[in-house]
Amino acid sequence: MEELFMSKKIKDENGNVYVQKKPFYKRVWFWILAIIVVIGVGGAIGGGTDDNGGTKVSSSKTSSKKATPKYYKLGDTVKVGDVTYTLKSVETTQERNEFEDEKPANVIKVVYHVKNNSDDDLPVGADLDAYDADNNKMKTYPVDGVTMDAVAAGKEMDVTEGFGLKKLGKVELQFAPLVSIKKAAKFQIDVK
Length: 192
Fold this sequence. Notes:
Layout: H1 2-5, E1 8-11, E2 17-20, H2 28-46, E3 77-80, E4 83-93, E5 106-116, E6 122-124, E7 128-131, E8 139-140, E9 149-151, E10 156-165, E11 169-175, E12 185-191
Antiparallel strand pairs: 1-2, 3-4, 4-5, 5-10, 6-9, 7-11, 8-10, 11-12
């Protein structure tokens, strides 16, 4: 019985004793691990939800109310994590950067105020994303006064950012600190 659990011992012609180990697939730990993995994968694939999957399509002609997202407006002050943002202005500008390869039809200049309520320096200038009326992310555009800086803990500053867009209309601005897990504050502005 003792030989079932022990490794096999082999002697060579010089009298040296070697231990021949069992292959890994014949070991108990391998099978326990394999069972745990199979159960985990089966649970993940099985879903564990009680819904039927998909979205029910209604054949009736009743209008359904869609939840419209809440947007902040120009002048509102919003706190995201330890940072407070105030959108001060959004305006079109005729200024163009002669060294920029892209020549957008329109350029907007966004000015906002940042107050850093955290205990660490806060990088600014990369904390704003902009989307045009077609929900396409707008590229930043270098305009005079663009801010790429940092705000010390407990301090505040005005930040300027430029964006190029194809056509004027509703623009969505999303503010969130560069390294943040908080949801971004969404502003919507009609740029004319």
